Each structure stands twice: as structure tokens, then as C-alpha cells.
């Protein structure tokens, strides 16, 4: 009779676990939950188990709720419980046609709550149940033409057709605003973004993107790349799950090697890296059975929980040390290039690539022979070096007229100090000298790239209410990547400042001809520079309109604010 309570507890736990089967588990292994089923599951789970909380923390562009689920076995609030612990944060369903993580996280939260798997003592497990809610609601069977299951799934774009995994800096969607609010609330040590891959065919079910070690920072990046991720993958291998870095090629075969994917700040892990969080993108292989993909996604999250539980103090220490690299006056890389001299040989397990005539066109087409497996060394290029650097300033100064920028900085909990009274401050300012622009719309923008600036210094008048932004804060990398116009995903490159690229005043040729002649006659230095330009530039020497424009742009009549970047630096 003494063992009766224990027996009752075991039976109760088993019964509850069975009653909380997910739609994926109830199905044939090739079906994924709907949005309504997912919400009902978590709401019921939270009612039954105090360790689970399920809260609406954001909003999709279609007005539907974005929910956060937390496993917290303590009786404290999240804010109190996180003290002295690490936080693992998982994002699911950014592309709802890739729902593996949605189903895997439902099972994992249930298994932690019911005690089916051992709960970590030093980790709080948090997740966005599904991020792209409107995409999840837009279910179909055919949009993922290259993917093997599930039978029905959501759509990649959200209600406004944004790819949310390009929106973490420009923040065009309510989804992105919600994510940033959630992220800044959770402040995770480790982040996982669950996806499904595209590209070549090979033997692996589990592939992954480790956030670039160089962009993460030398101390934390090397620890993650050399220690943490390798240990996680070895633990996966013990379960029979082989893995390979995301095969970053499209339309070609991997046999010749491939580079590490560059997760710039527009992507989820690129954004989270800016705040010193370790990040992995899980990329299960599109052609493997859905049931297998869900399992390896589940396994990787479990292994992360176990690893973080054992090493949470080391992770927190590395994060603190890593942040010290970004001090005022230090150099910071705004752009990176692949170092093709450095690589590691991967024992790549693939299928032989072959070619045959296309049944459609008769032209030669690629196919992979799954009966011809191979294992051979393939080069993985995983080292990037700085291509462009700047010096970290002490402060930025942002006029209050740039209210959209200020709003996004506040969203990301950036510290800003309002100027108390009108002041003249010695600052450095950029002038946009050159940039290129993509020819077609990209995610709602005509994205700039290869931006080049020159520097100008002097005293500038600022008004009371303008903001001084110190770089000595946790968001230093976010500030540099958004406010330095030459950074790949800067606010400038995402068109936030396009208005200042337009010239507001100009001249009539027949009027300014006489003015220009007088200027050249009276200003010897201007005349000398003008003649020099003609002598070294034959095309210019033959172009009367260009010569008149040159004089105008080198005169007092040319508006001084044209292409003058309205964010200032104090060094």
C-alpha cells in the first residue's frame, strides 16, 4: 500500500501525457497542427501544468495574436526566475510552410511539463509558438513544390506578403515589431530559429546555420563554433542523427565545396547576434519525411537544453567577455568577405549527381541518384575577414525629426539622452558620395548596396529634445549596424533616408550660364580646379551640361544638405 501514491502519480502522468497528444502525433506522421489547434493545445496545457505559461505578446499584420510559451518549473515570475539562469529562446513558423519546429516545440513543452524528460535546473525554455500567424492560417498543399510533406501547411509570406526573415531591421511588419519586443523582454542567451532547407539533395536530415563566428565576436564566436556547437552535434550523432552545415549552394552540386551562409542583420540570427546571443538556424532537409524532420528538430532543442543546463555559467561569462570587444575607439567591421584560403574538410555524405535530358525541354538537367551514395571530403569555407571597418564613436546625435529611427531604437531598448537646451556641438557627419540600388523591388524596398561615404566635421546646431546616443551600452552592435550607412543592412540602405538623396532646388540653364561665367572669372581657385577637371576627364571636357553642373555644385548656390546624412557622430 505504501507504493500506491507513487503508482497513482505514474498513472496520472501517463494519462495526462496521452491526453495532451499533439495533432501531429494523432495523425499519420505527415500532418501539422493548425493555428487554432495549436492555441487550444497550449491553453489546455497551461491550465493543467503551472510550469507552462502561454501569453499573447504581440500581433501579426492581420491582427491575430503572436503567443509566447514558457516552461518555468519554479514558482517565480519569469523576471524573477531568470536571475541566475540562462534563457533558451526558440522561434517557430517564420515560414509556416516549414512547420517542423511548431510541432516539435509543442511536444517538447508537453514532455517537460509532464516530466517525460528531465527538466533543466538552470535554463528557462521560451518559444514563440508560431511567429507568422497569417502565413500559418493561409494553408495549402502546393506552395512548397520541392518539399516532402506535411500534407498541408502554411504560406511563406505573411498577410502583406512579407518574408519575415528579411524584416528584422527594416521592421515593415507588426510581426517584426512584436519579435523585437519579445526578444528584448526575454534577453536570451541562446536562440534557435527552426526552418526547412532548399537546395541540393544529400543523405542528411539535419543541417544547420551557426551564426557567423566573426560577426558574433571573437570570444563568443570561437566558443560557440569550436566548443558548444560541436558538442551539440556529437550528442546528436550519438542518437544516430548525422549533420552538416547548411549546404549553401543553389543550382549546383556540393561536391566542390561551399561557404558558410552569411546571416546579416536582416535575418533572425543576424539580428539576435547584435545583442550578443548565440544563434542557430535549424534547416531540416526538405526531401526527408516530415516525421523524421520533426524528430531531429526536437532532438536538437533537447540537446541545447541539456548543454546550456550544464554550461550556463560559462555561456554567461563568455557573453560578458565578448561584449568588451566593442568599446569606444575600437575598430568594427561593417562588411565581411570570404577568406578562400581557409577551410575545413567535411566528410560529406551525399548522393551522386548525374545528368540526363529533360522530359520538358530536352535540355540537360541535374538529378541525384539516391542509389549511389558517397562519402568524401568536401571543403567548407567558414572564415570571413573584414572588408570595411570604422572606428566606434563615443556618441551618435539624432535629431528629433528622425522620429522613425528613434522609435525603432526605443523598441530595442537603446539608451538615449535628450539634449536639454539648444546647443552647438562639434560633430562628424557623412556625405553620401555613391551607392548602387537593386533594379527590382526587394521585400517592399529598392535596397541600396555598395554605399560609400566621405566625412565632414564642424559645429552643428541642435535643438532641445534631440538625442545623444552613447555607444557604451549593450546595443552597441545594433547601433553600428543600423546607423552606419555603409553597413549592409543599415537604415540608409533600407531607404529610411532616401528623401535626403533628392535635390530640392536647382537652376535654369539660361540664367545660371551667366552666373557661372562670373564665378569662374572672379574665383581663381575655382577656375583652376575647373580647368584641371577638364584636363583629366576627356568626357567631361566635351560635355557642356556637365561643366555647368560642376560649377553649380562647387558654388554657394548648391544646397549644402544634399546627400548629407542626418545622423551625427561624436568621436
UniProtKB/TrEMBL annotation:
Swiss-Prot/TrEMBL GO biological process terms: proteolysis
Keywords, comma-separated and alphabetical: Carboxypeptidase, Hydrolase, Protease, Signal
Signal sequence region: 1-17
Keyword flag Hydrolase: yes
GO function terms (MF aspect): metallocarboxypeptidase activity; zinc ion binding
Pfam family, one: Peptidase_M14
Domain Peptidase M14 span(s) in chain numbering: 38-171
InterPro entries: Peptidase_M14 (IPR000834)
Protein name stated in the entry: Zinc carboxypeptidase
Source organism: Epilithonimonas hungarica
Phylogenetic placement of the source organism: Bacteria, Pseudomonadati, Bacteroidota, Flavobacteriia, Flavobacteriales
Amino acid at each position: 500500500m505504501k507504493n500506491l501514491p507513487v503508482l497513482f502519480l505514474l498513472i496520472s502522468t501517463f494519462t495526462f501525457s496521452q491526453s495532451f497528444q499533439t495533432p501531429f502525433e494523432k495523425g499519420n506522421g505527415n500532418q501539422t497542427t493548425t493555428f487554432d489547434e495549436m492555441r487550444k493545445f497550449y491553453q489546455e496545457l497551461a491550465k493543467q501544468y503551472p510550469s507552462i505559461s502561454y501569453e499573447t505578446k504581440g500581433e501579426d499584420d492581420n491582427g491575430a495574436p503572436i503567443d509566447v510559451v514558457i516552461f518555468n518549473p519554479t514558482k517565480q515570475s519569469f523576471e524573477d526566475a531568470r536571475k541566475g539562469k540562462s534563457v533558451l529562446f526558440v522561434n517557430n513558423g517564420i515560414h509556416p510552410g516549414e512547420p517542423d519546429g511548431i510541432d516539435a516545440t509543442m511536444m517538447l513543452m508537453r514532455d517537460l511539463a509532464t516530466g517525460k524528460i528531465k527538466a533543466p535546473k538552470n535554463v528557462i525554455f521560451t518559444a514563440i509558438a508560431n511567429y507568422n500567424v497569417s502565413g500559418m492560417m493561409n494553408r495549402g498543399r502546393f506552395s512548397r513544390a520541392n518539399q516532402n510533406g506535411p500534407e498541408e501547411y502554411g504560406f511563406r509570406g505573411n498577410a502583406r506578403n512579407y518574408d519575415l526573415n528579411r524584416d528584422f531591421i527594416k521592421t515593415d511588419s507588426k510581426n517584426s515589431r512584436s519579435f523585437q519586443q519579445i526578444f528584448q523582454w526575454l534577453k536570451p542567451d541562446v536562440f534557435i530559429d527552426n526552418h526547412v532547407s532548399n537546395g541540393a539533395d544529400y543523405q542528411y536530415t539535419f543541417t544547420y546555420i551557426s551564426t557567423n563566428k566573426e560577426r558574433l565576436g571573437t570570444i563568443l564566436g570561437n566558443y560557440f563554433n569550436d566548443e558548444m556547437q560541436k558538442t551539440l552535434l556529437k550528442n546528436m550523432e550519438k542518437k544516430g542523427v548525422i549533420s552538416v552545415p547548411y549546404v549553401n549552394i543553389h543550382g549546383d552540386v556540393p561536391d566542390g565545396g561551399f561557404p558558410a551562409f552569411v546571416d546579416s542583420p536582416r535575418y533572425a540570427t543576424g539580428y539576435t547576434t547584435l545583442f550578443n546571443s548565440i544563434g542557430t538556424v535549424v534547416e531540416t532537409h526538405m526531401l526527408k519525411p516530415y516525421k523524421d524532420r520533426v524528430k531531429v528538430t526536437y532532438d536538437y532543442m533537447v540537446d541545447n537544453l541539456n548543454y546550456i543546463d550544464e554550461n550556463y555559467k560559462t555561456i554567461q561569462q563568455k557573453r560578458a567577455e565578448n561584449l568588451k570587444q566593442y568599446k569606444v575607439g575600437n575598430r568594427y567591421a561593417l562588411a565581411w568577405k570570404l577568406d578562400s584560403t581557409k577551410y575545413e574538410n567535411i566528410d560529406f555524405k551525399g548522393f551522386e549527381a548525374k545528368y540526363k535530358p529533360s522530359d520538358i525541354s530536352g535540355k540537360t538537367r541535374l538529378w541525384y541518384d539516391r542509389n549511389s551514395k558517397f562519402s568524401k571530403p568536401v571543403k567548407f569555407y567558414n572564415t570571413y575577414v573584414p572588408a570595411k571597418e570604422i572606428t566606434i564613436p563615443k556618441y551618435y546625435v539624432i535629431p528629433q525629426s528622425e522620429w522613425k529611427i528613434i522609435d525603432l531604437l526605443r523598441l530595442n531598448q537603446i539608451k538615449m539622452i535628450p539634449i536639454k537646451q539648444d546647443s552647438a556641438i562639434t560633430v562628424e557627419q557623412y556625405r553620401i558620395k555613391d551607392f548602387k540600388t537593386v533594379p527590382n523591388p526587394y521585400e517592399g524596398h529598392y535596397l541600396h548596396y555598395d554605399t560609400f561615404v566621405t566625412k565632414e566635421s564642424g559645429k552643428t546646431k541642435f535643438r532641445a529634445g534631440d538625442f545623444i546616443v552613447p555607444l557604451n551600452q549593450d546595443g552597441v552592435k545594433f547601433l553600428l549596424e543600423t546607423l552606419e550607412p555603409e553597413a549592409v543592412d543599415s537604415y540608409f540602405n533600407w531607404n529610411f533616408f532616401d528623401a535626403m538623396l533628392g535635390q530640392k532646388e536647382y537652376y535654369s540653364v539660361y540664367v545660371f550660364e551667366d552666373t557661372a561665367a562670373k564665378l569662374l572669372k572672379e574665383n581663381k581657385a575655382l577656375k583652376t580646379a575647373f580647368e584641371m577637371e577638364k584636363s583629366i576627364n576627356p568626357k567631361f571636357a566635351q560635355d557642356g551640361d556637365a561643366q555647368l553642373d560642376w560649377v553649380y555644385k562647387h558654388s554657394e548656390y548648391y544646397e549644402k544638405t544634399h546627400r548629407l546624412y542626418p545622423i551625427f557622430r561624436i568621436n
